[in-house]
């Protein structure tokens, strides 16, 4: 039987997913509400598949996806989020996810994604993937989404540097790229543009 880990910061979402997936025949299901809890659970339990929300209280789901892929080529990783914006799908793929599912999709879509990730963890499936490949204008990377999430929390350059384990100079380089792609000149405008363009995962 496959071992599943659900990573989401909302208890109701985790409980609902656990109930639905149990009904679909999965029985070995554990939960985590943060990046830190997820890392500990993954290290201790070695799940076969992890479902991950993008916005977590202590970091980005993309960051967690990249970390998982750096330690395992066999683990299935399904990004499960409210936002199906093309940039999110593309970022999930580049981070190393096996599949991308919007929370508005029916449970059978999630089950199919989980089963796909078990069989082919290094491939990628998502609804509307063909459109994603066609549109490459101003594409934000997974790391840039990580920075946007930190900006939204009001973190300084030094705090972002510490949180993401990158140098302040690298933070500034990423910020410059974000500003260029969003066609803004400062942090406040970047956060506003993120919400205007539907790039917030909440």
Automatic annotation (TrEMBL):
Any GO molecular function: DNA binding
Domain HTH luxR-type as annotated: residue spans: 133-198
UniProt domain Response regulatory: residue ranges: 3-118
A single BP term in Gene Ontology: regulation of DNA-templated transcription
Xref: PROSITE patterns: HTH_LUXR_1, HTH_LUXR_2, RESPONSE_REGULATORY
Sorted UniProt keywords: DNA-binding, Phosphoprotein
CDD domains referenced in this protein's UniProt entry, alphabetically: LuxR_C_like (cd06170), REC_NarL-like (cd17535)
SUPFAM superfamilies in the record: C-terminal effector domain of the bipartite response regulators, CheY-like
DNA-binding recorded as keyword: yes
Sites bearing 4-aspartylphosphate, chain numbering: 53
Protein name: Two-component system response regulator
UniProt organism field: Candidatus Planktophila vernalis
């Amino acid at each position: 039987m496959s071992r599943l880990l659900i990573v989401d910061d909302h208890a109701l979402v985790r409980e609902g997913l656990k109930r639905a997936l149990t009904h679909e025949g999965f029985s070995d299901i554990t939960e985590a509400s943060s990046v830190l809890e997820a890392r500990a659970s993954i290290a201790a339990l070695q799940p076969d598949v992890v479902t991950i929300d993008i916005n977590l209280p202590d970091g980005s789901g993309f960051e967690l996806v990249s970390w998982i892929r750096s330690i395992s080529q066999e683990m299935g990783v399904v990004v499960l989020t409210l936002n199906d914006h093309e940039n999110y799908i593309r970022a999930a793929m580049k981070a190393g996810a096996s599949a991308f599912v919007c929370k508005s999709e029916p449970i059978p879509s999630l089950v199919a994604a989980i089963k796909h990730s078990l069989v082919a963890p290094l491939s990628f499936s998502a609804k509307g993937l063909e459109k994603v490949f066609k549109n490459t204008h101003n594409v934000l990377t997974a790391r840039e989404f990580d920075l946007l999430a930190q900006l939204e929390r009001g973190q300084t350059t030094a705090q972002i540097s510490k949180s993401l384990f990158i140098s302040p100079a690298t933070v500034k380089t990423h910020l410059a790229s974000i500003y260029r792609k969003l066609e803004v000149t400062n942090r406040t405008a970047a956060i506003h543009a993120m919400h205007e363009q539907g790039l917030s995962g909440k």
